[in-house]
């Protein structure tokens, strides 16, 4: 997806502040953080949104990659001894603004119980 911002970041064609990377995914700081820690877990392969990802076998394998890497990502974010929130905004009504599936890892302060 040549025009996709997160594909450009994955390919190194747009800059980002990367805190963790492996073969399947990259994790970089959100440009508009809402908490002291706010990073985006971005699969390297382009899926438009979460449901598109989990309805293919390949996508489910990528989701498993995210699960496997999560403890290392949490450590890289400095949250190993703390809690955090993991969020996926799915499609427009779910608040998704970038159509390349990603998960927000948010922490570093006590988060309100209510979802916005
Ligand atoms: P969402 O609204 O769930 O699709 O999340 C998109 C997130 O990407 C937002 O929190 C934006 O602040 C963030 N964002 C947009 N452009 C960039 C960028 N160039 N580098 C890092 N984060 C970005
Ligand atoms: Zn993309």
List the helices and strands and how they pair.
Layout: H1 5-11, E1 18-21, E2 25-29, E3 37-43, H2 50-54, H3 57-76, E4 84-87, E5 103-107
Antiparallel strand pairs: 1-2, 2-3, 3-5, 4-5
State the main characteristics:
single chain; 116 residues; alpha+beta; HIT family, subunit A; five-stranded antiparallel β-sheet; 5 strands; 28% helix; binds adenosine monophosphate; binds zinc ion
CATH class: Alpha Beta
Helices and strands, in order, run as HEEEHHEE
Identify every distinct bound molecule in the structure, by name, code or SMILES: adenosine monophosphate, zinc ion
Helix percent reads 25-40%
User: Per CATH, what is the topology?
Assistant: HIT family, subunit A
Shape estimate? globular
Question: Total strand count, please?
Answer: 5
Order the strands across the largest sheet as they lie in space: 1-2-3-5-4
Q: What Rg is obtained from the alpha carbons, in whole angstroms?
A: 14 Å
Q: In the CATH classification, which architecture applies?
A: 2-Layer Sandwich
User: What's the total helix number?
Assistant: 3
The amount of beta strand, in percent, is: 15-25%
In the residues, how many domains can be counted?
Answer: 1
State the distance separating the first and last CA atoms.
31 Å
Unreliably modeled segments: none
Main sheet makeup: 5 strands, antiparallel
What kind of oligomer do you see? single chain
CATH superfamily: HIT-like
